[in-house]
Amino acid sequence: MADTVHAVTIIGSGPAGYTAAIYAARANLEPVLYAGGPALDEPARVPGGQLMITTDVENYPGFPEAITGPELMERFKAQAERFGTVIHMENVVQVDLSARPFTLTDESGRTLKSQTIIIATGASAKWLNVPGEAEYTNRGVSACATCDGAFFKGEEVFVVGGGDTAMEEANYLAKIVDKVTLLHRRDQFRASKIMQHRVLTNPKISVVWNTVVEEILGDGKRMTGARVRNCKTGEVMTMSAGGLFVAIGHTPTSGLFDDWLETNEVGYLKTVPGSTRTSVDGVFACGDVQDAVYRQAVTAAGTGCMAAIEAERFLVEHGA
After folding, report:
1. Closest-CA residue to 110 (of 266, 21, 4)
2. Rounded distance, CA 62 to CA 86, Å?
3. SS3 for 17?
4. In this predicted model, what pLDDT tens digit does every residue of 132-156 receive, in sequence order?
5. Closest CA to 218 of 308, 92, 131
6. Is 38's pLDDT higher than 70?
7. pLDDT of residue 168
8. Considering the entire predicted model, what is its pTM?
9. pLDDT for the residue 2
10. Are 37 and 47 in contact (CB under 8 A)?
11. Neighbouring residues of 201: CB distance < 8 A, sequence distance ≥ 6
């Protein structure tokens, strides 16, 4: 493999990576895809991205009866393989983007050269890391109101956070559930003034200040509430709710490219507006690693399509 220069190598799977692979393969580019796997610093990470820890997906077009996240990703993978994508279920651990063809090294020590690279390494939600959180993830605990809010119609839910994301989640949920309680560890929000105003004037949203979640409670089947502590008084109390949405931010999986590509202040890869082109010619980024706004499977898939088409055009223009 070391002697072969590939046309397209895709780093990462999920909707973005697999869609890029489908389009690249159908264009006869014979893509190689590194689907990833558990990393030393993130052992819970699995190939397929965040949908692998999602139960029912109801908002992906074409599945009116819903489909589980893992099943949807298995279908993406099978479709990519059907058209000839070569998939390695491991991580790329080093890249050299100083010259084309680019050089990649994987966990097996294998070296691969590629004329173009499509990055689809995604992002992961920041979690509270408190007892009960992992146990009740997808059974009351979520990091995406847009994805899971509809499951909580008629219930009371918590939102944890104080930035724009938390405000957006709370306002979105208030349209669906009976009551939203926003828990924030400080006595003021970090969110923009307009987002704060929308939350503070919404009759279905109440705010509990100076409060942190210490434990997620449940009955063994699903979440029933949380044990919280007042940061100033130390008072601990139990609050009931059917769901808890963690909205304290996401971390893009972009560290592999720190020495090579431009990122924003929190690590998302920068792309040319309206494009998936990065700061290095021939390197493209799609999905959540470059999207801090939408973070949806369908938008990730869309940018995966864009990346493959742009990679194909780049190869034609450069005679590769």
Report:
1. 4
2. 26
3. helix
4. 999 999 999 999 888 899 999 999 9
5. 131
6. no
7. 87
8. 0.78
9. 46
10. yes
11. none
Taking each continuous run of H as one helix and of E as one strand, the counts in the chain are: 6, 19
- Residue 275 predicted with pLDDT over 60: yes
Contacts of 262 (CB under 8 A, 6+ apart): 269, 270, 278, 279
Which residues have a catalytic role annotated? 144, 147-148
**Residue 35 identity:** A
Helix/strand/coil (H/E/C) assignment for every residue in 133-160: CCCCECCCEECCHHHHHHHHCCCEEEEE
Region 90-119: mean pLDDT is 96
In the chain the first and final C-alpha atoms are separated, in Å, by: 18
- Round to whole Å and give the CA distance between 8 and 304: 13
pLDDT digits (tens, 9 = 90+) for 213-253: 999 999 999 999 999 999 999 999 999 999 999 999 889 99
Rounded CA separation 19/292 (Å): 19
Sequence letter at residue 13? S
Rounded distance between C-alpha atoms, residue 71 and residue 66, angstroms:
10
Give the three-state DSSP class for 2.
coil
Report the 10 Å Cβ neighbour count for 135. 14
305 with 39: CB under 8 angstroms? no
Q: From CA 237, how far away is CA 214, in angstroms rounded?
A: 10
- Mean of all residue pLDDT scores within the chain: 93
